[in-house]
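Changelog-linked ticket: phenylalanine example.
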Amino acid sequence: MDSSRPSWTSRYSFILASIGSAVGLGNIWRFPYIMGKYGGAVFLIVYLFLILTICFIPLLAELATGKILKKECIGAYESVNPKFKPLGFLNPLTGVLISSFYFVVGGWIINYIYISFVSYKTSDFSGYFSSFIQGSTLPVIFTLLFLFMCMFFISRGIKKGIEFANNVLMPLFAVLLIGLIIFSLNLPNANLGIEYMFKPDFSKVSAEMFLAALGQALFTLSIGMGALLTYGSYIKEDKSIVKSTYTIIFSDTMFALMAGVMIFPAIFSFGLEPNSGAGLVFVTLPNIFAKIPFGNVVSAAFFILLFCAALTSGISILEVAIASFTERMKISRIKASVILFIIISAIAIPASLSFGKLYGVTLFGKTIFDFLDFTTSSILMPLNTLFLCIIAGWFLKIKGSQFISNKFFAVLFDIGLKFIIPTVLIGVLWAGLK
Ligand code: PHE
């Protein structure tokens, strides 16, 4: 085993960083608007069901593969069979593509923090948001700034960079979230938002909703991109990897629900629509903040919270490629960070411009931003998860009994990993590509 490999200071650091990876834009930005789009409580039920059944197995398998092989993704797959090397390579590639659109949204967040402090007079955030994202200068500068911040922590290594960022940002995130929930629940008619979240209307069930729920579940848990494999590979000794898996899933789900409890009561209290799509947190919420006393303070708190969540996830997305660069090319983390910064900028800048100047440039009928979002969350992440389950289950021969003491659940894990999850994923990919 390579003794120069970094490792976590403690089990707590590993779990906190994994929760930091999982809890991100997926929870606060994507989850509420997808839930709004697919009818609220019914979506929630399907989503929770999928998280507990389908997602548990690949999450545990990805962490376990990292922990057992103790290598970055490409080397890990290669050590199982040299033929799998290109499949391993798909992980850092997916990370680079995800970061290229994820960081554009990170840049928007920085802008909203900035305007919360400087000027908060806009009465029509819908017009403001669309004219802002169409710009060619500020959105690009802020995207690069967000990327730079993540790179800064990454280049400092596991302990001084990744652990430090999570130790500071995750508690700040949690405190702000709780504060904003209390604020939101005290607004008039807040109960309407809670009812919307928890009272199901079964007429809204559809096949498309199932797909959306599964895509959301994989994305929010950071499954299928090598982030968990890479974080798992830095575990020294953790007897209870199953417990870690539960903790990550439970925390991520709690934070998504809390994000809903923070956002929906405010939306219903102001008689607004919960289904405004991707603009929910950049248009609907700022419209509310603009109407309340000290709205700019609430706005700053909300966007700083979003920033913390996005940064800790962004770090984990980049770590996959950084680990591959440093371990395979034997270069320093700083050098690897500079190279990665250049590569990601080259894709993220066009992605940011695809709302304005490059709007007309399309790939398969989608703008660059939408294309990156679609190919990563609907194709590459399910595909990588499929390969991971096959390699872990059939070739590395991971067995449930290695981690799970209950015989029944251990066997269920084996069947799930080898047969059920791959079948479901093939179905999802087929449906997504149709
Ligand atoms: N899980 C993160 C979120 O919810 C996104 C992410 C995806 C992070 C894949 C790492 C790997 O925002």
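Closing comment: Example verified and attached. Residues 234 and 361 are 41 Å apart (CA to CA). The chain has 17 helices and two strands.
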